[in-house]
Amino acid sequence: MSGKTILIVDDEAPIREMVAMALEMGGYQCLEAADAKQAHSLVVDNRPDLILLDWMLPDISGIELARRLKRDQLTAEIPIIMLTAKGEEDHKIQGLETGADDYITKPFSPRELAARLKAVLRRTQGIAEQSPIVVKGLVLDPVSHRVSIDGNPADMGPTEYRLLQFFLTHQERAYSRGQLLDQVWGGNVYVEERTVDVHIRRLRKALGSGYEHYIQTVRDTGYRFSTKS
After folding, report:
1. Those residues with Cβ within 8 angstroms of residue 96's Cβ, 6 or more apart along the chain or in another chain
2. What is the spatial distance between Cα 20 and Cα 48, in angstroms, rounded to a whole number?
């Protein structure tokens, strides 16, 4: 599970720092937000693998933010664990009914949090990550690490494969070159943004005339994968 990005949403900085320290020691990458507005921006820009969301926030409540994220098709699949000092049963039920995947009452130990987080990630992402992604005649199989087009194997390099996998799992949204570098190459790797253009051209060539137009150039932004013209 290491390498996953976790968004920590809590208006108390000491709690965010404590949680971030524990998770980073476990190999996770952490983002932090002090309110719902900042959290929503980070979700849209970074697509975290899981959100740790405090119930009580200064602007919009955590439960309302969870409700909004679950209503949006682009963010509905991101798992949410509610963090709260409220231990009443009805609050727990309300959180789960909103779409939260788990619920942890403060205070909690870092070990308990890590264990619950792993369980939610395994439950919500394990199956999806192993299932082939199919877009018309284009099939990407994450188990065999192969791509086929209209039943024929597609020849592409590992970077083009990772680009395609990212696009297929994040369709209909425009990403800047910088965001693609962070998501596909990794934030700790220094690569010039123009390198993205080179690999986009290679990916389009590998997809061929039947599917290359799905990789769309978005003027003044970057690229997106879309089956819409």
Report:
1. 103
2. 14
Can you tell me the distance from the alpha carbon of 44 to that of 31, in angstroms, rounded to the nearest whole number? 13
Q: Which one-letter DSSP state was computed for residue 183?
A: I
How far, in Å, CA of 24 to CA of 188, rounded?
14
Length of the chain: 229
Question: Where are the alpha helices (H) located in the chain, listed in sequence order?
Answer: 13-25, 36-46, 62-71, 89-98, 110-130, 158-169, 177-180, 194-207
Ranges of residues in the chain with a pLDDT under 70 are 1-2, 86-97, 124-130, 186-191
Distance CA 63, CA 13 (A): 20
Enter the pTM of the model: 0.56
pLDDT digits (tens, 9 = 90+) for 35-78: 999 999 999 888 899 999 998 898 888 889 998 898 887 787 78
Which structure tokens are listed for 152? 């024929």
pLDDT in tens, 119-137: 888 776 655 556 789 999 9
The H or E element containing residue 127 is helix 110-130
For the chain, state the CA radius of gyration: 19
Other C-beta atoms closer than 10 Å to the C-beta of 34 total 18
200 vs 194: CA distance, rounded Å: 10
